Amino acid sequence: MAEIKPFRGVRFNTNIIGSLADVVAPPYDVLSAAQVAEHHARHPNNITHLTRPAGEAPYAGAARLWQSWLASDVLATDPEPSIYVYQQSFSDPETGAIIPKRTGLICLLKLEDYSSGKVIPHENTITAHRADRLKLLRATNANLESIYGLYSDPGRDIATFLDQCKDRINVLESLDPIAGSTHRLASISDKQSISTLTALLCDKPIFIADGHHRYETSLAYRAEAGNIPAADYIVITLTAFEDDGLLVLPTHRLVKNVAPELLEELPALLSNLGFDVAAVATAWLHGRSPHNHGFFMVIGSRAYDVRPRDIQQVAGCVPGEKSQALKSLNVTILSALALEMGLKIPIESLATTDKVTYTRDAAEALAKVQNGESQAAFLLSRPTIQQVQDVAAQGEKMPQKSTFFFPKLLSGLVMRDLLQVA
Question: CB neighbours of 376 closer than 8 A, spacing ≥ 6?
Answer without folding.
Answer: 254, 255, 258, 263, 297, 298, 299, 300, 369
